[in-house]
Structure prediction request, 412 residues.
Amino acid sequence: MTKISSIEGRILYNSRGSKTIEIDVKSEGKFLGRVCAPSGASVGKYEAVSFPNGSPEESLRILQENSQKFIGLESSDLKGIHDTLKSLDNSTNYSKIGGALAFAVTIASMESASKAADEPLFKTLSSESSFKFPFPLGNILGGGVHAGPGTPDIQEILICAIGSKTIEDAIEINLSVHKELRHVLEKADPNFTNGRGDEGGWAPKLENQKALEVSVKACENLGFTLGKEVSLGVDFASSTQWNEEKQKYVYDRAGFENSTGEQIDFAANIIEKYKLIFVEDAVHEEAFEDMAELTAKFPNTLITGDDLIVTNKEILTKAIGSKSCNAVILKVNQAGSLYDALEFANIANQNNIKLITSHRSGESIDSQISHIGIATRSKMLKVGIVGGERIAKLNELLRLSEHDLIRGMAEI
Ligand code: 2PG
Ligand code: MG
Prediction:
């Protein structure tokens, strides 16, 4: 048992160059847990607010004023630390202290506890005795709010090496497809600049279908068959296309609009044509019934809620009732504290809703989410493919492959 002896924070920058906070939690004066908070660009309406009034400085000031409340708590007592945060902010979305603060304090405390116990973080977070690796799910081509004009409206085309038996192989294959896609794009357009979006996926000037076709081509050039060695996924991030006034999805870049029915057909055609294993937010964040239609139609595809569910256990319970999805994104900072996120993960696991632990588009070089993905028995870990802040998560998985407690890949 080790007690928190100090808690401090500082302002740093995330991968997009925006200000964020980093928190240091020390136990017994020596076991340091250090966490830098990420943040999203395609943010769900109901997710935790990152900072009060958008100010990281304000979050830090609140921490400094209240640091004594954390000192003396057991660093492994996630509930106690969570309750202390809730005593400072009883709102439902951490609007008073900022979800980034709840995120960083809770994960840093658990990291400090894991160091004190001399065990890896995933072990501190779970009482299970054996674990599996989630499949890395990586962004190969980006558009939407993660990339500039002329890129696809859909936000992400993703690769997953579903046939891999080891984490090393799964990571290597994702990297090879990302590299091959660059060659395909260069061949198709001699003026392609090798530009990349916020998460390291290539950002070519292509409309949606063309972007999917070049992604398939990259897989085929490497001798892969879709559905065998690899499968593609898509994050439509449909709330960014949804126009409340028109009650339509507006695809500005491709130049068409979809009614709600047309959007379901649009997504269904893409799922069928490209044999997608993973589909995220194919409809907007409040379209629970439309999602349910896709879930019923595609039982073998992970029909996944991100902005729809925002790692919120009440919304998840509602979605389970309406059978809106068979998979959910887990982003700790959408929930706020790690305690909130682990409760959410339990509900998902108990109801056979598959978990995909995910990064944010604005990331740090931390890698605790690799441990969180393992501890929550996530099927996939959505962390990108290249860029220091993405590679950091994959490299941590490779380090963890030296650990006896983790054997084999998750069953999707
Ligand atoms: C998403 C994420 C991560 P953001 O929409 O799933 O890929 O993006 O962090 O911008 O919400
Ligand atoms: Mg998403």
